Each structure stands twice: as structure tokens, then as C-alpha cells.
Input
Amino acid sequence: MNVLIHDLIAYAPQILAGLENTLLLAAIVSLTGFCGGIVVFSLTLSRSRLCRSITEGYISFFIGTPLLVHLFLMYYGLPELGLRISPLAAAAVGFTLNISAYNARHLMTAYRGLDRMELEAARAAGFTEPETFRLIVLPQALRLAVPALTNQATQNLKDTSVAFLIQYKEFFSQVQEVAATNFEFFRAYLFTGLVYLALVALIVVAARRLERRIALPGFSA
Amino acid sequence: MPLIECENLVKQFDGKPVLRGIDLVLNEGQVKVIMGPSGCGKSTLLRCLNLLDPPTSGRILFRGEDITRPGVDVRRLRQSIGFVFQHFALYRHLTVQENVTLGLRKIRKMGSRMAREKAVCELERVGMYEHRDKYPAQLSGGQKQRAAIVRALAMDPAVLFLDEPTSSLDPEMSREVVSVINKLFLDNVTMFCVTHDAFLAKYISDSVVFLDGGAVLAEDVAERLFYDHPDPRIRQFFLGVIDMR
Output
């Protein structure tokens, strides 16, 4: 144990840099995945059958295939097409495509809980479809989807640990490097787990506060 | 002067006729109530008139302009028609006041302050001012319907369509809403109202249209249609409706 603590202190700058990279990636992809999810969700409501089919295909592909495949496609696959990007960029794009699909699915589920008559009323009042989406559909769908979206945010944080497989120096990979020098694997991984748990707990607390803050009478997810 | 005229209006769903050649005229300042048995096409007629369901054939003239021809600005047309639904259809993430101001700000392009003042004025008109900051889930059925009427009225529509405004309310709440609609009638608001409620029809209408099987069977003032009509089908229908009350 003492060896691990000694090494953690000795390698603190490297580990903290890894933690910073983890938080950076999680923050970027949670934000881009959130925005991407809204865009994909709006496309699922398109009048064009072709657009809806393509969007459904996109969602099925990214939900139905492992995240690691998306990351490898971006980091190892794209160079074959002449496009070489940094590990952070590859991770950001791969995660965003994946998370957008999941978030769109969460919003679609929430959309099913909306009162169709409200949409009819908006149409009858003369709102355009984009206005109806922005003013009626989205505010309600987002409220209903808050628990699912915040669960997704915690998932995003945990999933960043696989980014080390495309050379992204995130927290887990840095602790692993320390463990490789002192062979204290069990304690090192336990320590990693506890750090992730603490970060997830922070997200959960923030999510509950957000849920309470935006709660309205008649709305429950 | 006719505000809305429909000529030989036909609506079919999957080849099944719901409206079979309706001819109707609604003049400015007039209130026409449409009654008839369930499934006779009453609500479909209203939905066709503001193109929520485009008619299969026939013509609808709004202020003399054929709105069934291609290229018509449907959005502009709908802004001239206030629509009140049976199940209120209030936006449940918005307060009563926000429900009213949303259309004013986004469609009428009014500033927030002006929209708020207009909303307050309209809410006072139907006794809903004290409920302005409540969400739909916090209102009774009658209050929800009054809020829905205000939301439609605030847009200063040329005509108000009411689709069974009292059907989902208990008698007490129903009276609340009838008194509001009656007030609009006295204020000369042009209205097309679909209802099963003979009480409402009697107190707010200039004339009642009886629809059966997707066709207009008769049109007359309420008293004559309810109590003194020669057609046995119509007598039988109103006997049932009025007895039930």
C-alpha cells in the first residue's frame, strides 16, 4: 500500500494530467453528444421518409455496435482514407457520434410521452414546424428525458476509460502505467474505481439538483 | 358579409366519405353551432375549414379567397382562426400567461411587455387573471378551457372555432365555460362551435346546423330545431339530447 501511495505521489503530475484529459474528453463529448442528440432527434421527426430512414439507420448503427469500433474507425480507419487525426479528436468524434445516437433515442422515448393535442394546437395556431419543435416539443422532451440524459452523462465519463486504446492519455491509462512499474495492480485499479465513483457521484448530485430546479407541476419522467 | 363559405365540401379518409358535400356560410359576427350524432363529421368539418385536414374536394372561401387552391399561405390563414380543442391542449410546460403570450410574441411578433399586457387584459375578461402564474396541471377542467379560449382570443382571430368545448367537463365546470362563451356571443365574436351540449347551443347560437352522416340535414334557429322541426330524424335526435339534460 505504501508503495502505491509513494508512487501515486511521485507520479502525481502524470496522473493529474490524465485526470484532466479524462474530464476534458467527458465534458467535450457530453456537450457535443447533447447537441448532436437534439439534431438527430429533430431529424427523426422530419416529414421526409428518406431523412427519417437515414436517421433511424444512423441510430441503429451507433447503438448496435460497440463504442470501441467507433473509436478504432476514427483513429485507425480514417488514416487509410488519408485523414489522420489526433487521439483527442478521434475520441471526440467517435464518442460524439455514439452519444448523439443514444441521446436521440432518449429524446424519442420522451417525445412519446408528449400530448399530441398540444402539437395540433400549435399547428392550428399557425406555428411553423421548426417553431413547434423549438418552443413546444424540445422543452418538454428535454424535461422528460433529464434522468436518461444525466445517466448518459455518467456513462460518458466512465466510457472515456476506453480511449486509452487509441493512444489518448486519460486517467486510467496513467494509473496503469504507475501500476506497471510497481506491480500493485489490485490497489491501483481499486484506486481508479474509487476516483471514477467520486466523479460519478458529483454528476449524480448535480443531476438531482437540476431535476429539482426544472421540475414543473404535471411533469414527471 | 360572409367570412367563411364552403361549397360542396367533401372529405374522405382512406376512400371512406366523412363529409358528403357540405354547403355552409358563416357571416361576420355570427355564431353557428354544429350538432349531430357522434361520427357525423362535425369535428372533421372544423378541421377541414382551417385545413388541419385538407378537404378531398369542394371549395372553402375565407373572406372571398379560395383557401383550397394550391399555394395558399396556410399559416396566415390559421392565424386568423382561433381554435379551441375539446381536451384544452394547453402547453403544459408553460404557465397560463405564457400560454397566451407565446403566440403573441412568436407569431404576432409583439414585444414581451405588450404581449404580457394583452394577455393580462384577456385573462381578466374571462376571470382567469388570478390563475395566470399557474401551470395547466394546477387548473380545474373549466379553468383549463377558459385559458384555452383566452389563448385563442388573444390573437384577435377573425373567427373562433370551438370543438366540443364542454364535452370533457362536469356540469359545474361546463357552466363556467358556457358563461364565458356566452359573453363572447354578446360581444359579437364570430364563432363556429361543434357541440353535443344543447344548453350551450341554445345560449350562444344564431343558428344551429344539424349534421348527419356527413351531410347537412337542417339549419335553423335553436328553438325551432330543438322543439318544432318537421323532420322526425331531427326531432328524435333532439328529444334524446334535451331529455338527457
